[in-house]
Amino acid sequence: MALKSKSGLLEKLVPILLIASIGLAFAVGMLWQKVQNLEGGGTTRIAGTQAGAGSGAQAGNPQAAGAPSFGSADQVDKLRQDDHIRGDKNARMLLIEYSDLECPFCKRFHPTAQQVVDEYKGQVAWVYRHFPLDQIHQKADKEAEAVECAYELAGNDGFWKLTDKIFEVTPSNNGLDLDDLPKLAGDVGLNQSAFKTCLDSGKMAQHVEADFQSGAKAGVTGTPGNILLDTKTGKTKLIPGALPFENFKTEIDSMLKES
């Protein structure tokens, strides 16, 4: 009788102990993640996702537990010396795009941003900053470093030529062969040997990371993350996703009407 009683008790305890073990393992994992975030400092790259057309607010990009919160558009960095600009740098409005070279929605948005600059000549300038989502696009970091090497070798023109070229040829979603980068650099007029030396050095990684942190501070959680900045009034507007030109036109016209 005593043996049966003990056996029944053990049968009841086993699932309870199993659940408790799973819970303990989960708690330890959560604690480890928080420690990692605190030790690393800044914002970790865990919340970014691709933001397609019609994505609306970036609420669909859940943050992992223990991750630091993202900022807001009014904290966006103003025009910097190392920024890459298309259009008049003295334009009243800035379209600041945080982008990922392997993001298919960024590829789709690229001509839209150019259309904004063309339609608002002298009024809107396009500023390109890096926001590589390395959890889903492992090649995007190196591609971002590549276009920074193009900037070092050939200035703003070199940067934009290689950026345009990469968006033109990549199938997106890690589809570009990184071994092709020197050839692409040569195709846009860069010295392939000097380009490869720069890229292999890894010296541009810090700039790419600084751009990413800048985007996170400004509330960007997906790509393309677009911020309209009115340099006259100081007002900002975060527009996530590869939305059509008409959406940007509505916002720009509204902001330009303000004195």
Automatic annotation (TrEMBL):
Membrane-spanning segments: 12-32
Q: Which domain of life is it from?
A: Bacteria
Q: Which keywords describe this protein according to UniProt? A: Disulfide bond, Membrane, Oxidoreductase, Redox-active center, Signal, Transmembrane, Transmembrane helix
Region feature (Disordered): 49-73
Listed GO MF terms: oxidoreductase activity
Q: Where is the Thioredoxin domain?
A: 61-257
Say yes or no: keyword Transferase present: no
Q: Where is the composition biased (Low complexity)?
A: 58-67
Q: Does the keyword Glycoprotein apply?
A: no
User: Which InterPro entries would you find in this protein's record?
Assistant: Thioredoxin-like_fold (IPR012336), Thioredoxin-like_sf (IPR036249), Thioredoxin_domain (IPR013766)
Similarity comment text for this entry: Belongs to the thioredoxin family. DsbA subfamily.
Name the UniProt record assigns to this protein? Thioredoxin domain-containing protein
State the species of origin: Candidatus Woesebacteria bacterium RIFCSPLOWO2_01_FULL_37_19
